[in-house]
Design a protein that fits this description.
Elements lengths: L8 E2 L12 E2 L16 E7 L2 E5 L4 E6 L4 E5 L5 E4 L4 E7 L9 E2 L2 E6 L5 E3 L2 E2 L6 E3 L2 E2 L38 E11 L9 H19 L4 E7 L4 E2 L17 H12 L10 E5 L14 E3 L8 E2 L2 E2 L2 E4 L11 H13 L33 H7 L7 E3 L9 E5 L11 E5 L4 E8 L13 E8 L9 E3 L20 E4 L2 E8 L4 E7 L1
Length: about 500
């Protein structure tokens, strides 16, 4: 595939469907207890496999104006009643007790007008004033049949992304042309400055180059943008996003999607980026998370259907270090391919700064690592030497070519240690997107646990003798180093301009 063409083209596709179809709530098939006096919310939650019966859950969760989630008890007949004040609400239907593996919660967006009238986006009430809600039934899990001993199955249960195989549905394709839309949004208190296409080009050009490189030419991004700033009808701090992982990020993203809906045919795009002015203060929007959506994610619905993948920018996209903007965009886009965060929050770091999915503010080792490339299909089976512990009854020597080098050869050696844990070895040098000192460069050795969720420490870099740095930048093995990981002894025999020679054996 040819290299991506630099620049952003102006969106000329026009609007899509004029309005999102409204579904009519059906008449209740059962008799329910009457609503308490003054109720303006009347819901009936039904079983998605049989509309004639209640789901059997004990209520719903709701959130008003991006605030705290609150549980609202329902009745055994499936009815849920409330008297809500004016505002915007998110509603999550809840799986019946003990059946979380069968159902995925479904989100609805609602509003209560100043006069107290309740309405649901995409749904109208039946003749009795009830809105019929349901939950998402999980599809039967297909049996995963690995074609190699190293293609370990993801065991986190996370359907939005995976640490192993297979790649999740709805994520960005690992091969081909990816059509991306930029919605430049500004605010009454933070007006956009200049041409947004020029402003954001530094993000898009470098991000496109990065994924083209890391995918070995398999992925090509095509960016389009609305031709001018889209003014939001709210201030920049309206969704309380001034602290990391706080506020109503989904509400903000869905509000901008809705604002642009009359102008855009979302069906033309694989991913949507909502980008705000460089001047937006961190106290208004500190961070920009990714939104890898699934069926039932009501906030991501538009007139043309579900926006499967998207993100928005915050002040973190304009930090004061080289490449901040494109590295932010690339990291969040990594989630939209289905990749996990490799950093940790509640425990000390276990992997360090060896991948853009770990520390996207780094200027050193930012290339996508071998395991992440492998699960995306960006390393082929011919580039991975898969050994099982039984293959090491006698020592095995293998050559490893640097991960960032455009050359044939083995780019990684992998050994499954169990059904859920794999050992990975790759050569990291100051080449391509990696800018490493001689002290940093070497054979990177790490394990990946298929059962550990994102940011919880499932990635563990193995240290060379004498390695002490908390970010593991001194952990890569040098010539003469020898370590043992789960009874597998790894020794770097030699290193030249082309390869590392590694000896593997059982202890």
């Amino acid at each position: 595939m040819p290299a991506p063409t630099p620049g952003i083209s102006t969106y000329r596709g026009g609007s899509g469907n004029a309005a999102r179809p409204q579904e009519k709530s059906f008449e209740l098939p059962v008799r329910v207890s009457p609503p308490p006096s003054g109720s303006n919310v009347k819901l009936w939650v039904y079983d998605p496999e049989n509309e004639s019966r209640a789901l059997g859950s004990n209520g719903i969760f709701f959130q008003k104006d991006g605030g705290t989630w609150t549980f609202l008890n329902g009745n055994s007949d499936g009815s849920v009643y409330a008297n809500w004040s004016a505002g915007s609400y998110a509603i999550d239907t809840v799986e019946p007790g003990g059946r979380a593996t069968e159902y995925s919660r479904k989100r609805y967006l609602a509003t209560v007008s100043a006069s107290g009238e309740f309405s649901l986006s995409g749904l109208v009430a039946n003749s009795q004033g009830y809105f019929t809600l349901t939950i998402t039934k999980m599809t039967a899990k297909q049996v995963y049949l690995p074609t190699s001993a190293c293609r370990l199955e993801d065991q986190t249960g996370n359907m939005r992304g995976a640490v192993g195989f297979p790649k999740r549905e709805y994520r960005l394709a690992s091969e081909g042309r990816i059509n991306a839309l930029i919605i430049p949004v500004d605010f009454p208190d933070v007006p956009g400055q200049g041409d947004p296409e020029e402003l954001f080009r530094v993000m898009t050009d470098e991000s496109a180059k990065f994924f083209y490189s890391q995918s070995d030419g398999r992925v090509q991004f095509n960016f389009q943008s609305l031709d001018n700033w889209l003014r939001a009808p709210f201030k920049s701090d309206a969704y309380r996003l001034g602290s990391w992982n706080q506020g109503d990020s989904g509400g903000y993203f869905s509000a901008v999607l809705a604002l642009a809906d009359p102008l855009v045919d979302y069906s033309l795009f694989d991913v949507v980026y909502v980008l705000s002015p460089k001047e937006t203060p961190a106290t208004s929007i500190a961070y920009g998370p990714a939104f890898p959506s699934l069926p039932g994610d009501e906030p991501m619905m538009t007139n043309e259907g579900l926006v499967r993948n998207g993100t928005f920018s915050g002040a973190d996209a304009w930090q004061n270090f080289p490449g901040a903007g494109w590295k932010w965009m690339t990291h969040e886009t990594g989630h939209l391919f289905g990749l996990h965060d490799l950093y940790t929050v509640s425990i000390p770091g276990t992997y360090g700064s060896w991948d853009l999915m770990s520390l996207n503010w780094s200027t050193e080792a930012i290339a996508i690592n071998a395991w992440n490339r492998y699960i995306q299909g960006w390393l082929t089976e011919s580039q991975v030497r898969c050994l099982e512990p039984k293959d090491l009854a006698s020592p095995v020597e293998t050559l490893i070519t640097p991960i960032e080098r455009e050359a044939d050869g083995i780019k990684a050696v992998m050994i499954p240690l169990s059904s859920k844990k794999i050992l990975v070895m790759e050569s990291r040098r100051s080449e391509g997107y990696d800018s490493l000192s001689d002290k940093q460069a070497g054979l990177l050795v790490y394990t990946v646990d298929m059962s550990v969720q994102s940011i919880e420490g499932g990635w563990n870099t193995q240290r060379r003798p004498g390695s002490t740095r908390p970010d593991f930048t001194d952990a890569a093995l040098k010539v003469g180093d020898k370590i043992t990981v789960d009874s597998i002894q790894i020794e770097v025999i030699s290193r030249d301009a082309s390869v590392e020679l590694v000896r593997l054996s059982r202890r």
